[in-house]
Recover the amino acids of this structure.
């Protein structure tokens, strides 16, 4: 069996979508002739903990852990947030960002390039150079963000020029929607772009998760570029005994930042509470994950506080149950430039839940293309209040009749096992060159 070294910052017991892609690949790779070896930090900063993902991994999987130094204690001391976990994304919980938060973001963007995990690069290259000499592998995979992980692959490529290296981009780099929020100087922005090009051109294969990201990186003229989306694991939902919610539940799972705030939706739901009999009694808004305080404020201002349940991060296994029980699943895309390529990982698990999806975002984006091609729901533009109201009214009427269903098709191509088969074929081609 061939061996592939997977270098990743996020690994179990980390929670969140960032870890699931490679946990699921590792789960199925052996079925296609590849033995995964994981290299990950011993003491990383995780935004959430989810031990339920451990069940997906082979008990004898080799996981190599090495210490990492990160400057987050300096950030905590500066902002007075001692012993608090680092938030994922730019999210405010309970207050607006102060000058200390903004200063920290400026330092992160202009001095910690490409990101705060950069201090792990050199010690990792030294350790893995020795490891590979004693324990040969047939391919290396680095996955980011954090994009500093890719520089471990670049460093190893210099020592082992004939060893295939795949750089997996779960998100864009300089074209990510929050890149401008880093308050970059022109110099720092140029460095980010130069480093991005260096990785894309240096890897033997670049792996991306959306068609637009593939097109963006293709401009850097990589040696090869492949597309494998995120997906769902059909085994996660096997033997689930879940009943549909008795309420007209609209559920959103995951991080919920200010630029996702669907103000038009709150307005529509508020209006329908007065316009439709029983709607106010039936409506249940279920939000799970870290939520920006501004979103909670808008829900209160719309008079929907009594209809909303807001829960912190939940283990993945519990989230699956809620997805399958919800009447409608809410997909909220980021209302900023350069977000048409974003495909939230939750979309594929929504597919597997086979409940109607209401997406709000770019109707010409990559997420819209997937929803339309599978018939899994509808996507309306950020400001299309009329279409939004029409969807909710129709879904509610079907709910009252007991006929609210999702007749999606062609979702099997996004199963984790099928996607891992595709990955193994790419690895086979790489290792034969």
């Amino acid at each position: 069996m061939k061996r592939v070294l997977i270098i990743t910052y996020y690994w179990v017991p980390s929670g969140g979508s960032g870890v699931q892609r490679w946990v699921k690949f590792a789960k199925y790779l052996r079925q296609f002739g590849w033995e995964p070896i994981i290299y990950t930090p011993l003491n990383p900063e995780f935004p959430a903990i989810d031990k339920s993902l451990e069940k997906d991994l082979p008990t004898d999987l080799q996981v190599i852990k090495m210490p990492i130094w990160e400057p987050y204690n300096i950030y905590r001391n500066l902002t007075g947030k001692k012993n608090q976990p680092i938030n994922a994304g730019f999210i405010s919980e309970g207050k607006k960002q102060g000058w200390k938060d903004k200063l920290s973001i400026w330092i992160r963007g202009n001095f910690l390039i490409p990101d705060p995990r950069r201090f792990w690069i050199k010690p990792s290259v030294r350790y893995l150079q020795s490891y590979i000499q004693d324990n040969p592998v047939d391919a290396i995979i680095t996955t980011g963000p954090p994009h500093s992980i890719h520089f471990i692959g670049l460093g190893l490529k210099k020592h082992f020029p004939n060893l295939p290296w795949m750089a997996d981009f779960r998100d864009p780099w300089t074209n990510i929607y929050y890149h401008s929020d880093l308050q970059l100087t022109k110099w720092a922005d140029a460095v980010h772009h130069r480093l991005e090009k260096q990785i894309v051109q240096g890897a033997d294969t670049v792996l991306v998760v959306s068609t637009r990201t593939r097109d963006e990186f293709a401009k850097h003229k990589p040696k090869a570029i492949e597309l494998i989306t995120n997906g769902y694991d059909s085994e996660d939902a096997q033997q689930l005994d879940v009943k549909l919610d008795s309420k007209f539940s609209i559920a959103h799972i995951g991080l919920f930042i200010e630029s996702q705030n669907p103000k038009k939706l709150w307005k529509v739901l508020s209006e329908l509470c007065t316009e439709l009999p029983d709607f106010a009694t039936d409506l249940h808004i279920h939000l799970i994950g870290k939520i920006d305080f501004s979103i909670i404020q808008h829900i209160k201002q719309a008079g929907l506080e009594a209809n909303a349940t807001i829960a912190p991060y939940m283990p993945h296994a519990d989230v699956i149950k809620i997805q399958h029980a919800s009447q409608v699943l809410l997909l909220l895309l980021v209302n900023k430039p350069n977000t048409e390529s974003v495909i939230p990982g939750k979309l594929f698990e929504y597919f597997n839940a086979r409940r109607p999806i209401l997406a709000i975002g770019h109707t010409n984006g990559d997420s819209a293309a997937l929803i339309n091609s599978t018939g899994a729901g509808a996507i309306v533009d950020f400001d299309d209040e009329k279409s939004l109201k029409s969807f909710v009214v129709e879904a509610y009427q079907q709910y009252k009749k007991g006929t609210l269903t999702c007749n999606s098709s062609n979702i099997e191509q996004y199963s984790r096992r099928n996607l891992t088969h595709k990955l193994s074929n790419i690895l086979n081609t790489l290792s034969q060159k």
